[in-house]
Amino acid sequence: MHIDARNIENNSIIEGDICIVGSGAAGISAALEFLNTPYKVILLEGGGFEYEKQMQDLYKGKTTGQRYYPLESARLHYFGGTTGHWSGFCSTFDAIDFKEREWVPHSGWPITREDLDPYYPRAHKNLDLGPYEYDVKYWQGKDPELKSLPFDGDAVYNKMWQFSKPTRFGTKYRDTIVKAPNIHLYTYANVTDITANENASAVTQVTVKNLAGKQHTVKAKQFIIACCSIQNARLLLASNKQMPKGLGNQHDNVGRYFMEHLEIKSAELWLAKPDVLKLYHWEWEITKARAELAISEKMQRKYKILNGTASLTPLDIAKNQPAFIDMWTADTAQTKKNFAKLDQANKDGAKKEGHRSYQLFTRLEQAPNPNSRVTLDVEKDALGVPRAMLHWELTPLEKHSLRGIYKIIGEQIGITNGGRVRLMDYLRDENDNTWPEFTGGGWHHMGTTRMAADPTKGVVDANCKVHGIANLYMAGASCYATAAAPNPTLTLVALTIRLADHIKRKVKAV
């Protein structure tokens, strides 16, 4: 069922069993888990079914610290959310990503990789991925031309990625959600405030507003906030009538530990002879699976580095490509043109005989840093909510890790006489912790309502429930305690399905 919140009577009271705020990958995945159940689900979307500039304006904000993308373009504000410009990259987290690592401050989750294992295959279905297989040998069995570089797997291994179509949740799941008798989708219903009971131990209702001047109240027994990492934190911080620092923020953790993936060109690989390196090749909307070079847990521990992967692009193509940080603009149409031009350049530059030189491009997890954070600005949006301010701050560990990754890769390729690795200039001085102008992120927002068993160290518990509030849950990558190397979408969908299962058990037991 679909209701446009602009067209119902002002100050309406909307009631249900479960209220989900946000209809991106997390919000829709949560709603799908309650299809055909006895529970009335209220799914709130701030925008409509298509991109609208005035809705995007609600996501405007300021950035400080490390150079970053315009906030209003980094997330899409309509049904389907940011899956509208998702590239479809998917891979699982590694076991080490969940562990406490003594060289990574604030690392460690209250769950393990094994806790997510049952949910990854279910997430595959939502994302239209292939078989739940991330073993390089499986894919090589499908195509003998997927030959590996000659690395020692105990040091450098091939981490496999699968690629979604990419699935646009707003297109694929629109009819399913709208036709579901127990799911009530309200569009143009922006949540502007969360209200708890007198001692703030449970949420009683949320307030929704829209640009048509309407305001409504939504009441439910369970609330799931699935807006995205920046907006999740913004909403908790702005809901400060009862708790001056914001809901769930007794220990000043909401908004802190904002993490991105550093996505940055880092080195060159020069091979002894040309090679197409088909195993490592990616072509937009064609490639089903490929490998990136990854560092084993053993070597991460030995060199005390963060987790990261290296992808390979022919150097004569890569050297003419602008940095991603310069391609992503506040003009969504122009951004699409920039990436279409990049994709065409990749196709035009391909050589059947292969290439001898490749650019090594790194996707590196960011160390959890409490100074990297989301706060509220004094300026408010058109609905009266303080705008978000993002301070993105890196640490010396990121640059140390980049050097470590290519030291290991360089040593391993050198041992085989298969080639050599050449570091880019900005990585050569081990005492230099500055970052070049072309440093960028992957548009992967994580960590602002981080998971921790100890309420003083995080915002949500192992079930994504806000500490101290019985019926308030956060969904999505904002719950990540560390970022890992892969893009966050596959894992956030798996984590959301796990959250939905937890709520099913909880409401059934009542």
Automatic annotation (TrEMBL):
Keywords noted in UniProt: FAD, Flavoprotein, Oxidoreductase
Transmembrane segments: none
Cofactor(s) the protein requires to work: FAD
Pfam family, one: DAO
Domain FAD dependent oxidoreductase: 17-233
Domain Glucose-methanol-choline oxidoreductase C-terminal: 368-495
Origin: domain of life: Bacteria
Family (UniProt): Belongs to the GMC oxidoreductase family.
Name of this protein: FAD-dependent oxidoreductase
Organism, as annotated: Mucilaginibacter lutimaris
